[in-house]
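Lab notes, practical 5.
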Amino acid sequence: MQQSPANMSDALPTIRLIGLPTDSHSSFLRGPAGAPAAIRAALASDHANNASESGLELGTDIIVDDGGDLPLSEDERDFDLIRAAARAAKDGGTIPIFLGGDHMVSFPVVAGLNAALGPVNILHFDAHPDLYDNYEGDPLSHASPFARIMEQGLAGRLVQVGIRTMNRHCREQARRFGVEVVEMRDFTVDRVPIPDGPLYISIDMDALDPAFAPGVSHHEPGGLSVRDIISVLHRVGRPIVGADLVEYNPERDINGMTAVVAAKLVKELAALAGRDQ
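Output from the prediction step:
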């Protein structure tokens, strides 16, 4: 993927790609730490161009600043590194798109954006609600980030889309935090509420049916199509303040097809940064 020339107008929106190569809080399989490199390779491939479906082009209408991967060590220091990177990106006038990694990363990212902006609203695509108070004794589990986000008041509104694994505990947690859940059994594009800004979008790749995205650790049949997610994104009518794309596991991919889906979604997320106010 071509980056924008240095002399391009400062008036253009700038996205900052930040890789988060970590999966130490995964509960089942490791592998998502390898996602950032695989997604970048798909973005750079000649198999496709840089246009989003809105017509906005990365590198032409939207400046792409690739910040590389954070030097994560998969210990307690990573949280502060991720949080600081999110705040620095926002303070620097860019719109960060984080390439995960497991879903733990959404907690420090939102914490960093909250430090810069106050509470954000979140549109979250996933097979799982990730609302466990803790999972297997790990309060930072990839199954728990939205419990941490909501209990700390980092988000004002949380809309979850594509959920199809709600157990009793997570239903209780959703009620406790006032989470708006569009379960997959009830999904239509028009039924998804789009929160007001400042809006953050989190896409867990297992929100997709495994037929569209086999390269994930948790195969959960009966999910969203690629078109479903894109159609919901096209209903977002304002620029976003940031996004993450997480839980892609290259070790389980087939012919790189999930990497290509991830790259497609990165382009559509980037286009939301270029939306008119």
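Observations recorded by the TA: Residues 14-273 form a domain with the Arginase; Chain A fold (CATH 3.40.800.10). The first helix runs from residue 35 to 44.
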